[in-house]
Amino acid sequence: MTHRNNGVLSSFLVTDATYRWSRPALYSSPRRVLLTAIALIVVSSLVFGAPSDFYGKPVEEIVLVPRRQPLPVDNMIELIGVPPSTPLSAEVVQGVIERLYRSGRFEQIQVEAAALDSGGVQLRIVTEHRWFIGNVHVEGVEAPPNPGELRNATKLTLGGEFTQRQQDAAVEAIETVLDKNGYYGSEVLPVHEYFDQTQQVNITFYVRTGERAKYDTPVFVSDAELKANKLVNVSNWERWWGLFGWKGVTESRTQAGISNIRRYFQKQNYLKAAVRLQDINYSPDKNVVNPHVEVQPGSKVKVVVEGAKLSGGKRRELIPIFEEQSVDRDLLVEGSHNLEEYFETRGYFNADISFDSETATDGTQEVVYHIDPGPRKRLVDIRIEGNSFFSTKDILERLYVLPASLQFRRGRLSEGYLREDESTIRSLYLTNGFRDIDVDYTIENNFGGKEDQIGLTFHINEGAQVFVGNLKINGVKPEELEDIGKMLTTLESQPFSVVNATADRDNILAYFYNLGYPNASFDFKVLTTDSENLVNVVYEVNRGEQTFVREVLVSGLNVTDPELVYKRIELFQGQPLSQNAMVETQRRLYDLGIFANVAMAVQNPNGEEKSKYVLFQLDESKRYSATFGFGAELGRIGGSSENLRSAGGEANFSPRVQFELTRLNLMGIAHSLSFRTRVSSIQQRVLVNYLAPQFRSNENLNLAVTAVGDQSRDVRTYTSRRFEGSVQLGQKLNLARNILYRVAWRQTGIDESTLQVQPSLIPVLAQPAKVGIISATLIEDKRDDPTDSTRGIYTSLDFGLASKVLLSGSDFGRFLGRNSTYHRLSSKLVLARTTTFGLLEPTSSRFRDKTGFNIPLPERFFAGGAASHRGFSENQAGPRDLVTGFPIGGETVFVNGVELRFPLIGQNLGGVLFHDAGNVYSSLSNFSFRVKQKNIEDFNYMVHAVGFGIRYQTPIGPFRVDIAYALNPTDFVGFRGTREELIDLSLPELLARRERQSLGHFQFHFSLGQSF
Amino acid sequence: MRTRSLLFAGLLFFALSVHGELLDRIAITVGQDVITEQQIYEQLRIAAFLNGAKPEFTQEKLRETADRMVMQRLVMQDMRANGYPLPTDEEVEDALKQSRQANWGSREAFLKAARDAGLPERALKDFLNKMVATAKYIDFRFRPAVRVSDSAVLERYQSKYNPLDPEGGEPPPYEDVKQKLEDEIADEQLEGVMDSWLEDARARAGVRYKPEVIP
């Protein structure tokens, strides 16, 4: 069979069509085969003793066996590299073998020769192909260990060569992990799935484990007398202190047990206690293990600190003998340095630390740290001398040492910080061409004539600045130079620095890696010139061979639609193998949110072949996930529903429980269905959400369909029951800008028995509100950190239209806009401001009625609280019922907040000063900046509040306490009595029960996250 | 059992694929490099020729030669990685000359013997090139790690020339044998360092012998 390929070799290379052997015939007589093979080996050995008779004859034909080869024919021809009529020689044959082997695709290559009638030679290249590792799975084990852990233990690397030896080692490793987890005598059976075309083999290790072994009485091996029962207790290997027998064996439990025993001894000052799992004796008949634990408590070590107070926790943190469980001079010296550093950071800059270590007669080793803290001082001044290229301000703002301030009352200074700052200044100069930069510092005691003050001066000797005279880049094509030029940090006539050259190296190499040159290398030379301040720089780039994508192989898809994955792959057959494209593909697959692991690799990484298979091994996430959450609200959210006296709310605490169940990757198309509940004393909510992220394969679109059932008392005036269905399409316009299109239909019913308003309004306000609304929200978020912003801008604009076309009971338009900006005034001060404006406007006059309630009560604006106007407690701003004094919301809301944020003590505690102004207004026409309440029935004025807050940084954002003082709090008419009385009493009696009430000047708020 | 299966598979592969004369095949892989069966035989023949002996194609000799070639290949790979230059033609010619003079006297006699043995001069030079390169590189790479202390030399002297040994005779003066003992210890140390490097390099490169060629 002749391959029709271009080039001279097209009729020269033939694959084996005639030498195919018959499998069944051979298998029928293995003995005969073996004898023949041995005979051939003997003959072969004799032949190898001398040069072949074929050498010197021209090669006229090449046959490949088997017919199907792992590389394309063109590639094979190139690798074989034997043009027609080439005289055969040992070197030619060895060259063929070497080149083919270097491709990495072959396990064995043998070359044979046969005479042709023409007098030439037919070369027969017989290959045995190599296998590469594809998907690796371990099945049949109840966690722990989990499948991922077991797979890692196999050390079978995706895309790497697969050998029997590796597999044997993998089986052994799995067995070891299983043993450690109590699955003794497990059977591990590797099953392979071979893919001839790609030479890939998927391996599934099927495991049969049996029952997990349990712990049994441990054996403690020790020279000392031990309380075995106590040690068993602390090991925590028993179930309920032994009442229910022993726990099942797991590796982590065994390790934890050993650690617990060690900790037990450490607590009793046996710091050098050596606790080691000597053996874990397995009894197959009972399926239990008896851990043999070697315990050598050693001598007691007592650590005494003299001359200063130091808590036990600090001692353990600073003196490493606790952690290292060993006492030697090095560790004691390290402890001494740590203590010195600690006292320096607390203002004892001249602290003197020494230590003694003695062994008492009872064998106890006593380590005494003598601390002479010296006088406590303040670092009041930091100066920079000798700088001319950088300003003092530029240098100071990079330093870690700080002079005394409100935040650091003694300043921040220690030897460690000084070393870091010296290095910072040096790096700053080095990156700007000052190769001979020298930095030093001096500390001045009794600074300014005061004993408790010190000053610090950094002395800088800049030296000469060196510039780049000429920059030459070798090994780069002219068309590539433009791209590379854009990424260079080393530029002609600019300062020279090795740091910049290193950055250039990284950028240039990344550039070539992305063009498919995985072996690209970079070197640079700095050549001196006649001028002392000028160097020439030469970049040498060696790009190596370009590699292309042969095909992308995806494995691990069980339920996911493959099309979903293929659409996100950014690597294409025949294109250069770009690392960026690989990483980007990985990111896009992770972004689907349905894969627990996306492993990627290039198959046959060391093989020298032009095009390579790119492998993606995907692990689908568990299809169900459940989360539980607990929380609480604290604030003026309470008050008896019977007694109406506290219309302004009473301090109360409301615990909250949340539960969420999500079904991921619905129908294999990455959609999800979530069920969420949230229950607290003021709100009970059930929500079902169907989410289609990357809707219609567009990464910038998502579609959510949501149904909500909710009973809420967050507005204290009433308890509402809401049922809502909505469809929302989210569109990402760019990194910062999103737009949400939403259609919602909701019905909110108000429990008439909870409505705290004058009886005449109850029939009006208790009407269920049916609203069908279409809305769009534009969000632009350019904040540096959404949880604690220090600069940037955030804007959201929400427009909605409720209309009878959408089956709405009322027609109205809705607008709610918010704009917040954040400004860094200095390295410590941040000024933040926010303005919220909202408007509800009926679009049909038929809803205007004499009560003035143009918009249904639950749809009206309510404001006030931690995330709104802090001069009010939760939802207490704006118009109120003229008899009961409970808030009834408004049609316009305006809140403006300004905050000055600053650090308070150390790194984690900060403070804010704030001013909030605004209110909820009955209508836009009644909006006013007026600060004075006309009378107690007037709520259309602007309430101002100032206050102070504390922020404590936590990993999930700042914990917040705000105390606000309302300068002009709202007074209103309240009702003295119960709700029954409100309903039953006659009008004169009602009027008689009215009393003047006030929301009060002080409000407090606890919350998580900044207020805006 | 597994070895037998592998052997059988190898034999089977070989037997099934043989059609004409088997010219060559992979015997050992050293990372991305291969050593072919023919190369091992050639090396064995050249080594025997240069030693003035007849080649022996026994399993032991084959294995011994293969091991030496693996070591050589690992050293060459390390040389390439470190950019160490190959020996010059003069250095190789010197080595060849020494061998010629030791066994054959004249260049003509040497060439005739080589022709009779079927060994081209190129193959001999190539062999010597690798030998010289390996020897030089080992010295360059590992000799600096060798440190022989005076006390070690003295200890060796005392143990080797024990005056209490009734059969030892009169020990030579320390200064006379000091250099010889120092070289002896240095060579031993060099061998130790080299062995440990080799073990590591073999593991890193993943050296694999094909059982069908080298059982």
Given the helix and strand composition of chain B, which structural class is it? mainly alpha
Quick one: biggest sheet of chain B?
3 strands, antiparallel
CATH class of the largest domain in chain B: Mainly Alpha
Strand % of chain B is: 5-15%
Brief rundown of the structure:
Chain A is α+β, with helices and mostly antiparallel strands and 1012 residues long.
Q: What's the topology here?
A:
The complex is a heterodimer of chains A (1012) and B (215).
Chain A: E1 13-15, H1 23-27, H2 30-48, E2 59-65, H3 73-80, H4 90-102, E3 106-115, E4 121-129, E5 132-139, H5 147-154, H6 164-180, E6 187-195, E7 200-208, E8 214-215, E9 219-221, H7 228-235, H8 251-267, E10 274-283, E11 288-296, E12 301-306, H9 312-318, H10 321-324, H11 329-345, E13 352-359, E14 365-372, E15 378-385, H12 392-396, H13 415-430, E16 438-444, E17 453-461, E18 467-474, H14 478-487, H15 498-514, E19 521-528, E20 534-542, E21 548-555, H16 562-566, H17 579-591, E22 595-602, E23 611-620, E24 624-638, E25 650-666, E26 671-680, E27 683-693, E28 701-712, E29 720-732, E30 737-750, H18 762-765, E31 769-781, E32 792-802, E33 812-824, E34 830-842, E35 892-905, E36 909-921, E37 943-954, E38 957-966, E39 971-975, H19 979-984, H20 987-993, E40 994-998, E41 1002-1008
Parallel strand pairs in A: 1-2, 2-4, 5-7, 8-11, 9-11, 12-14, 15-17, 18-20, 21-23
Antiparallel strand pairs in A: 3-4, 6-7, 10-11, 13-14, 16-17, 19-20, 22-23, 24-25, 25-26, 26-27, 27-28, 28-29, 29-30, 30-31, 31-32, 32-33, 33-34, 34-35, 35-36, 36-37, 37-38, 38-41, 39-40
Helix pairs in contact in A: 5-6, 7-8
Chain B: H1 2-17, E1 21-30, E2 33-36, H2 37-50, H3 59-82, H4 89-103, H5 107-116, H6 121-142, H7 150-160, H8 174-205, E3 207-209
Antiparallel strand pairs in B: 1-2, 1-3
Helix pairs in contact in B: 2-3, 3-6, 4-6, 7-8
